[in-house]
Amino acid sequence: MTYYIQPYPYHRMARRWLASAAACTPDFDHTLRVNIKDEEDAYTLTALVPGLKADDLNIQVIEDVVTIEGEYKQDETEYLMQELPGGTFKRALRLPTPVDEEKVEAKIVDGFLTLRLPKAESARPKKIKINTK
């Protein structure tokens, strides 16, 4: 079976429309999507950050708020279709309990950002022993 790709006859008009829409929008904002797992002593946050390195991200933790910001570099190439993320992003998440900022661990492997956010000692459940005599 043979497929023929025919050029879009109105490509000049479409390019002008896209250029005018881009002029109205300052930057394409990418919303960082995350998964957060609640474990007994910590939260585990994972996010997709394809093509970014550790230096491209800024992660801050203050009490129970985690802020992740970064930027996807954009090239000046004119694309027929562009779906890959571009521009800057910033995501702030409020967790149910405070986090121990000193023990937070972060790593990037194969485009996955993983944050281990240990719960503060005051937020962890405590077992109370009952003395029987």
SSE layout and pairing:
Layout: H1 11-24, E1 34-38, E2 42-48, E3 57-62, E4 65-72, E5 87-94, E6 105-109, E7 112-118
Antiparallel strand pairs: 1-2, 2-7, 3-4, 4-5, 6-7
Describe the structure.
The protein is mainly β and 133 residues long. It has a domain at 27-73 and 84-123: Sandwich (Immunoglobulin-like), CATH 2.60.40. The protein is built from 1 helix and 7 strands; from the N terminus they run αβββββββ. The protein has one helix spanning 11-24; strands at 34-38, 42-48, 57-62, 65-72, 87-94, 105-109, 112-118. It has a 4-stranded antiparallel beta sheet with strand order 1-2-7-6, with no helix packed on it. A 3-stranded antiparallel beta sheet has the order 3-4-5, with no helix packed on it. Mean pLDDT is 81; it is low at 24-29.
Q: Could you write a compact summary of the structure shown?
A:
By secondary structure, the chain is mainly beta. The protein is built from 1 helix and 7 strands; from the N terminus they run αβββββββ.
* Terminal CA distance: 86 Å
In the CATH scheme, what's the topology name of the domain at 27-73 and 84-123? Immunoglobulin-like
Main-sheet strand order equals 1-2-7-6
Extract low-pLDDT stretches: 24-29
What is the chains' assembly state? single chain
Q: How would you sum up the major sheet?
A: 4 strands, antiparallel
Given the C-alpha coordinates, what overall shape results? Answer: elongated
How many E strands? 7
The helix tally amounts to: 1
Structural class: mainly beta
CATH architecture of the domain at 27-73 and 84-123: Sandwich
Tell me the helix content: 10-25%
How much of the polypeptide forms β-strand, as a percent range? 25-35%
